[in-house]
Each structure stands twice: as structure tokens, then as C-alpha cells.
Amino acid sequence: MNNTGGTRDPGPRHRPPEDLSRFAWLSIAAAVATIVLKTWAWRVTGSVGLLSDAAESLVNLVAAIIALVVLKISIRPPDQNHQFGHSKAEYFSAATEGIMIFVAAALILVQAGDRLLHPTPLDNLGIGLLVSVVASVINGVVARILSVNGRRRRSMTLIADGRHLFTDVITSVGVIVGIALVWLTGWHRLDAIVALAVGVNILITGARLIGQSGAGLMDIALPSQVNDEILAFLDSRSSKTLKFHAVRTREAGYRRFLEFHMLVPGEWTVQHGHDVMEDLIDDLITRWPELRVMGHLEPIEDPRSYEDIEL
After folding, report:
1. 240-271, pLDDT tens digit by residue?
2. Which residue from 60, 125, 186, 227 lies 20 to 30 Å from 253 (Cα-Cα)?
3. pLDDT digits (tens, 9 = 90+) for 83-116
4. Whose CA is closest to 290, among 249, 244, 243, 245?
5. Angle, CA 283 vertex, CA 221 and CA 77 arms, to 5°
6. Which candidate, 242, 295, 299, places its Cα nearest to that of 269?
7. Its pTM surpasses 0.70
């Protein structure tokens, strides 16, 4: 089937992708700070909960470094080998973070299981609690910044890193509760029980993150609300001589793509069909500046124009 439609070049209407690596540097700084704080707290208390918390912060550091590299790769312009750009690199970062969350959870569960079987008295619990609270505040603030900016800029890497840090906050809160209860009750197995519960929660978070990354790599469609708005927009332009079908969307990191077939009278000249298509694409991009739009022009009377409607 010959494609006589138009493909809109990104042109000046599309802003170049934003370099988000500054957020990765913020995550790296937070990870280094919390590693130092939590490791020191573990050394002075002997708490397996704080040890597991420190181990997760080490994973956070590695994940933040991976995020930094991926964010730099994802904004590279299209090249001969990657003609649709590099934005999908963000999903690999998110999947890697999900896997690393699993690793952190495994370390926590192993250490907690051993401490549950062999409880050990804890020391300097007041200092440990204070340090863990400070580390939690740092991670909480940074997680909030990453999550908000990730959703605003549709960056899977920032969303994943923010979620990763938020699981660290949950871990720390659980550890703080555990240490406080040990301090109040003297029952040292509580430290291990809380660590086990935190480990299971982290496993669930990691599984969700990997699932979302896989959906992105499978060219998931745009959110249903955006899809409905696009369909309504095209429907408003439809008439007896102008119809649309095979409307499909997908997203790859911060990039969003729209494809559709436009059916027009076969008697139209190529120039007239091209002009209508280009004007329509201009209007679509004005309404949704982030879209990369491809339109395919077909004669409305030809039965073959309706053979490729189905997904």
C-alpha cells in the first residue's frame, strides 16, 4: 500500500528533550549521605534493621548512578542505528532498579531471618533512632522531588528512582518503629520481625516497578484519557468526505507517538490531500505538543482502504 500521507518532522514546534540528569545527581548525593548516616547508626547499635536499611541505601546509590547514565543516553537525538531516538533507555533503568530492589529485599530477609533465630541485644538505640530519622527525612524530600518531576516530565527513570527512594523511607520508618519497640519492651526479636516485614514490602514494590517497565518496552498506548481526547478531536474533524480510522498511539519514555489513516475522496489531488493532512497535523501538535504524528492518506471509496483497520 503506497503511503501518500504526511509525516510531520519534529521541527521547531517540538522542544528538544530536557536534560534531567540534575535530578540523578540529587539522588546520588542523597544516597551517599544516607549510606554514611545509616552505616554509622548500624555500627553503634548493632541493629540488623539498620544494617538492612544501609544495604538498601547502597543499592540506591548504584541505581542513581545507572539513572544518571540512562538519562544522558535517553536524550540523544535519533541516529542511523536508532532512528526513533533513545528514549526507551529509561525503561531499562526502571527495570534495573526493580531488580536491585529485589536484591536489597533478599539481603534484608536473609539478615532478618538470621537475627530472628539468634537475637542480639542492641546498644545506643537513641542515637540510632535519631540518625535514622535524619536519613529518612533526606530520602523523603528527594523522593518527593523525583516523583513530582518524573510525572510532570513523563520520565520513567525519575519515577522509578523516586519510588525506589520512597521504599527506602518506608524501610526506615519500619526500622525506626522496630528499634523504638525494642527500646521500650526489651524484646530483641522485634528488630528482626520488622526487618522481615519491610523486606516483603520492598519485594512487592520491585515487582510493580518491573511490571511497569515491561509495559513500556511493549509500546503501551497513551493513557485512556489522552486517547479519548485525540479520538474526539479527530471525530470533530470528520465529515462525509473526511474520515479517520486505524488510530493508534504509543509512548516511549518522554516521547509520544500517534498514527492514523485519513480517508478522503479519491478525486482529490495529491496536493490537496497533503495540505489537509499537514493542516490537521499542525492542529494536533498545537493541541498536544509532545506528539510525533504520522498520517496515512487513503481513498474513501476503495475497499482496500478498510482492510487494515483492525489492530
Report:
1. 899 999 999 987 666 778 999 999 999 999 99
2. 60
3. 666 666 666 666 776 777 777 777 777 777 777 7
4. 249
5. 60
6. 299
7. no
